[in-house]
UniProtKB/TrEMBL annotation:
Keywords (A to Z) from UniProt: Isomerase, RNA-binding
Protein name: Pseudouridine synthase
Domain RNA-binding S4 stretches: 5-65
Lineage: Bacteria, Bacillati, Bacillota, Bacilli, Bacillales
The organism of origin for this protein: Paenibacillus apiarius
Keyword Transmembrane listed: no
EC number of the protein: 5.4.99.-
Similarity comment: family membership: Belongs to the pseudouridine synthase RsuA family.
InterPro entries documented for this protein: PsdUridine_s_RsuA/RluB/E/F_cat, PsdUridine_synth_cat_dom_sf, PsdUridine_synth_RsuA/RluA, PsdUridine_synth_RsuA/RluB/E/F, PsdUridine_synth_RsuA/RluB_CS, RsuA_PseudoU_synthase, S4_RNA-bd, S4_RNA-bd_sf
Length: 250
């Protein structure tokens, strides 16, 4: 049986206006439900099946949003902050009124894939330590990363606080020399999300990360065509992939 809700609550959730504004519009005959003028803003409606039109524009209800962002450096993974610019600040009002939050966090100086949603259940599944959701990063590391490091990461390394990491897959892409220093380009896949984990893992083998970018989280892969600092809504296939990936883990 379909879940019903108040007309003003539905329109408010969709960012159409405040409850008092919606009440005024209803009284003014600007709202129609299934082709009939709805003068009562408290009318119970079926968000999935009823056709709701506000001032000639059809309102298509949705409860959740799923946003892929290519996070730039200099913004923090939070919903609000008194001093710093946040990833939510990069969204327009028509998205931010859904009150999305970042699923996990990327450091202020880290770029790349960030999922923002208001779907708390999916976020919990993706972040649960029991799920071991893989996350892949590209990094530039000061120092020559070698097969001995890859072997260490395969077995897990000990961080500065004594924590033993889960096994991780390290792929060495190439080395380059700059001003008598060697830098390594690598990809690293981890299945947990400790504070500054990638940076601390390399510190554990005596090396320093100078650039870090997340490429994927679970089945969600950063869109190569998405410019830095920009966002787009996830496709139905991408959302289904995330959900199916978690259901397979259960």
């Amino acid at each position: 049986m379909a879940k019903k809700m108040r007309l003003d609550k539905l329109l408010g959730h969709m960012g159409c206006g405040s409850r008092s504004e919606i009440k005024k519009w209803a009284k003014g005959g600007l709202i129609a439900v299934n082709g009939r003028t709805a003068k009562d803003s408290g009318l119970q409606v079926d968000p999935e099946h009823d056709e709701i039109v506000l001032d000639g524009e059809r309102i298509r209800y949705r409860e959740y949003i799923y946003v892929m962002m290519n996070k730039p450096q200099g913004v923090i993974s939070a919903t609000e902050d008194a001093r710093e610019r946040t990833v939510v600040d990069l969204l327009p009002e028509e998205m931010s009124h859904f009150e999305p939050f970042p699923v996990g966090r990327l450091d202020k100086d880290t770029e790349g894939l960030l999922l923002l949603t208001n779907d708390g259940k999916l976020a919990h599944e993706l972040l649960s330590p029991k799920k071991h959701v893989p996350k892949t990063y590209f990094a530039i590391v000061e120092g020559e990363v070698g097969e001995d490091d890859a072997e260490s990461f395969r077995h897990g390394v000990t961080l500065d606080d004594g924590y033993e990491t889960q096994p991780a897959a390290l792929t060495i892409l190439r080395h380059e020399q700059e001003e008598q220093r060697i830098y390594s380009h690598i990809e690293l896949t981890i299945t947990e999300g400790k504070f500054h984990q990638v940076k601390r893992m390399f510190e554990a083998v005596g090396k320093r990360v100078t650039y870090l970018k997340r490429l994927s989280m679970g089945t969600l892969v950063l869109d190569a065509a998405l410019p830095l600092g920009q966002w787009r809504e996830c496709s139905e296939e991408e959302i289904a992939g995330l959900r199916q990936g978690q259901s397979r883990e259960k």
